[in-house]
Design goal:
By secondary structure, the chain is an alpha/beta fold. Helix content is 36%, strand content 22%. The strands form two sheets. It has a five-stranded parallel sheet with strand order 2-5-1-6-7, with helices on one face.
């Protein structure tokens, strides 16, 4: 992981942050950063992948808002990040919804592309992972569905990031280093 995560943890503790949202392009390390925080802080993680649009209506509404996220279901099932959180995770491979329970912790991490979508009501401190494209591509090549990332997911993320100025509106930008 080529981000200064000890500095990020210091910042989280110093500012006493309660909710953070980690966004960036696919392959930038969002999930890895969230896992690192989960292993080193008292926190819980809500992956945006759990709220993939799973039906024609949610896909159409997501497309209209330039996201690939069933944000209506997210806000309905997780209206607040206070207290225990219960929701149903959508599993793309099987089409199933599985129950998820997240106990109250000192910090909630909302992780994934579209986590900075401005309509979300969580008042999160927005963290953006700034990672060079060549690094992201090398990481994505190790995934079994590399072609889908290049042909489907990256263009959708590009549209979202440009439309909502995701990087420019971040509170904290973590720069990848070699």
């Amino acid at each position: 992981m080529n981000y200064d995560l000890d500095k990020l943890i210091f910042e989280i503790k110093q500012r006493n942050l309660r909710v953070i949202a980690i966004d960036g392009f696919c392959g930038s390390g969002k999930t890895s950063v969230a896992q690192y925080l989960q292993n080193n802080l008292d926190c819980r993680v809500i992956p945006m992948d759990d709220f993939f649009p799973c039906d024609e209506r949610s896909r159409r509404i997501a497309e209209e808002h330039k996201v690939n996220l069933d944000f209506e279901r997210l806000m309905r099932e997780v209206p607040s990040v206070e207290g225990e959180i219960n929701y149903k995770k959508f599993v793309c491979r099987t089409g199933e919804f599985l129950p998820v329970t997240l106990k109250e912790t000192g910090l909630t991490v909302i992780e994934g592309s579209y986590s900075h979508f401005p309509i979300l009501p969580y008042n999160a401190t927005k963290i953006y992972l700034d990672c060079p494209e060549f690094v992201r591509i090398e990481r994505l090549k190790r995934r079994p569905n590399f072609a889908d990332f290049v042909s489907k997911w990256q263009p959708k993320e590009q549209t979202y990031q440009e439309f909502y100025d995701v990087r420019q509106n971040a509170d904290i930008i973590l720069k990848h280093f070699d």
